[in-house]
Amino acid sequence: MSTIENQITLHIIKLLKEGKKDQFQTVIDEYQPYDIAKIYENLPEKHHTRFLIYLTADQIADLIQELEHDFQLEVLGKLGVEKSGEVMNLMDNDDLASLLENLSPSRIEELLSGMKIEESQIVKDIMNYPPETAGRLMTNRFVWIPQYYSVREAVDKLKSFAEYSETINYLYVIDDHKKLVGVVSYRDIILAEETEKIEDIMFSRVISVTADTDQEEVARFIERYDFIAIPVVENEILVGIITVDDIIDVVISEATEDIEKLSATGKAIDFDTKAIVAAYRRLPWLILLLFIGIVSGTIISQFEETLEKVVALAFFMPMIAGMTGNTGTQSLAVVVRGLITKEVNKKIITQLVIRELKVGIFIGVVCGILITIIALIWRGDAILGLVVGSSLVITLIIGTLAGTIIPLILYRFNIDPAVASGPLITTLNDILSLLIYFGLATMFLAQLT
Amino acid sequence: MSTIENQITLHIIKLLKEGKKDQFQTVIDEYQPYDIAKIYENLPEKHHTRFLIYLTADQIADLIQELEHDFQLEVLGKLGVEKSGEVMNLMDNDDLASLLENLSPSRIEELLSGMKIEESQIVKDIMNYPPETAGRLMTNRFVWIPQYYSVREAVDKLKSFAEYSETINYLYVIDDHKKLVGVVSYRDIILAEETEKIEDIMFSRVISVTADTDQEEVARFIERYDFIAIPVVENEILVGIITVDDIIDVVISEATEDIEKLSATGKAIDFDTKAIVAAYRRLPWLILLLFIGIVSGTIISQFEETLEKVVALAFFMPMIAGMTGNTGTQSLAVVVRGLITKEVNKKIITQLVIRELKVGIFIGVVCGILITIIALIWRGDAILGLVVGSSLVITLIIGTLAGTIIPLILYRFNIDPAVASGPLITTLNDILSLLIYFGLATMFLAQLT
């Protein structure tokens, strides 16, 4: 906490203790929901109840959406079923759904029972969509109008649904069958004459997504077309909209997921995760790698004789394995990030594989020559130098190709290419490089001193 | 290209060949700029000139912002200085600035000479801000109003600057000294009475950034407060605004940068990068790793005697080095991603380091026991098993801590923590693990068979 945050917290505590509700409201009014959430989280717990009593249901709804998960549950607990129902009616359905999704079914039922039936039904519907789809991200906090409305009528409807129109900047236009037929921005409304018909000023080639669209796909649409909201339809009927702020969260979490997979961190470890949970999530990968390590060991043990005769071979093992692993990770990262922004077809893939083959040959030859010279100078053994150097050329080419082709194959079979995570590619490349290195060494053994 | 895209392209070619400009416009009208850009890029080059002739300057300005860089330059070249000046006047200044930044100074001067002086001056100003700052991302395509305006006057100004208000949803309010004092959303305008004063309905606690704010910081604001635009000020004077669509691009490119650094890919390699360029960008890291690999080799060579006596030690080398490297990468990924969304202070850092220490001990003990048992069964040698197992315990703890502390130290000194890239941490951990492993082995050598 900074000094300023400390001062604000102390000021708030004073107002709460002295029961100055009006002054408390004046202070709170000056802040954004995110800031209010931080104030709440910094406040000693004994002040939380009065803090909540002093807020309106509307303010609590805004606050709760910005709190960390544990605090969200605390707030709902403190409010009781009735008040929390009132607050939940005011929350964005998608935020509420993601708040509830990890609770027990009985607790979910209990909390939803305090809500208006039509609102709780919408939340239940959202929770029924598969995770990471458009259905999970959509909100019903938007205003729709029939196409035969005049601009005047649209403005009137907007005024009477003012609280539904806060974050959105479009009115969605539907026909008699509730089908989405157009969209009008608030700007269009301002610029139009009051008597104009909505159907004459609306943009009718609306781009929409279906509720089962993958969230990455939705993000791609928003990014591509610079939208700030995109409608969600089912059988052409408008069922919700997704706003750009949710998409930013999607982009961040998808990138974090990619990094988690590339580094085999295991899912969802952040600064707040408990040590035992973090260890438990990381262990499966490490144990898998341990067994793959044993495979490497077994391979080396096959070459025990070679190694006994030329112990110096062991000196270059980490270097060859490390570099092969690294070049594979480099290729992997290029492919994984490339697949996010590009649509791929056979032509692009062929070009990419050929490109990476060339890259592999180029870096293989450069590094190979370098290490041959170094090994020659260091150990004074030309044959050893050549074995190490030529091994590196071959393993770098193979490592580069493996890092390119494996994620592409996974992508082809609709498996997230990032699961061919860095460590897996690294370990695979380890094994390949050991086989090549010791294989070559054994072939040349007669020449090695 | 899909079949549908093929059909559209063929249809467009037909219209261009037959000179049907009106029908061409009808078709183009149905698409978003991104789609028009894809059509242009798919079109054989010989049709490009007429395609551009058939578009209005406004449409070309939209199109150019969505094209790949090479095509952007092609379009400017085909238009000639005068027409391209007209188009550039209509482009978002920030997009134009990033289009121009890699061109030669003389070419920039030539292109800017076709623009209105005041517009070209703004573009030059933007290009003078350091890369990756708010100044580089801001646009002047917004509408400002004085605070004493009535809603009616605001609407009139909005109508006369209609083309400046396309993508934004706010009017920015300034005082007599051009200082930013408030913001009014289009929704506020619609909901208000015509006679109301802007200063009475505006939101006056505007959150803004300065032109030299880092773009990651700007993204954090937008993400935190769910804004769709944020004003940029210099000495409290409004100089531009940044829109959420640019922020999505920032979030994507920052995540890609993190992945590039974690995997030491080298900067800016995508599917279109030429093989020789990609190899050249990747080589520096690989050569650095090669030399670090030599250090590993030198360390092992210090234990040549130990290794000669117990060649089996080599079997477990890749496993120990690999696992230590991996646990370091896991910790690194958690820290790097955590720093993006969290503000850190001493308390959080201490907690994190202690957490990771516990994680290290936990996974160290589990994996250590496992490998001791495996080594014992495999090699039938209890001492070897204990050496391997206890090495793994120690190296996993150290590896986990190194992956946590090193990026935090870098962060503390304002160095991007992701530059402590995966491979660097891996290699460092390689060296540490070899020292510990062979150190322990040498100590217990008398007992090893």
Structure notes:
The structure is a homodimer of 449-residue chains. Chain A has helices at residues 3-17, 21-29, 33-42, 48-54, 57-66, 69-90, 93-100, 105-113, 117-128, 134-137, 151-160, 186-191, 198-201, 215-225, 244-262, 275-302, 304-309, 313-341, 346-379, 382-412, 422-443; strands at 143-146, 170-174, 180-185, 209-210, 229-234, 237-243. Chain A has 449 residues and is mainly α. The first copy, chain A, has a three-stranded mixed β-sheet with strand order 1-2-3. Chain A has a three-stranded mixed β-sheet with strand order 4-5-6. In chain A, a hairpin with a 5-residue loop joins strand 2 and strand 3. The longest helix of chain A is centred in the C-terminal third of the chain and has 34 residues, at 346-379. The model of chain A has no long low-confidence stretch (mean pLDDT 85). At the A-B interface, helix 11, helix 12, helix 14, helix 15 and helix 16 of A face helix 11, helix 12, helix 14, helix 15 and helix 16 of B. Chains A, B: Residues 138-201, 202-257 form the CBS domain. Chains A, B: It is a multi-pass membrane protein. Chains A, B: Belongs to the SLC41A transporter family.
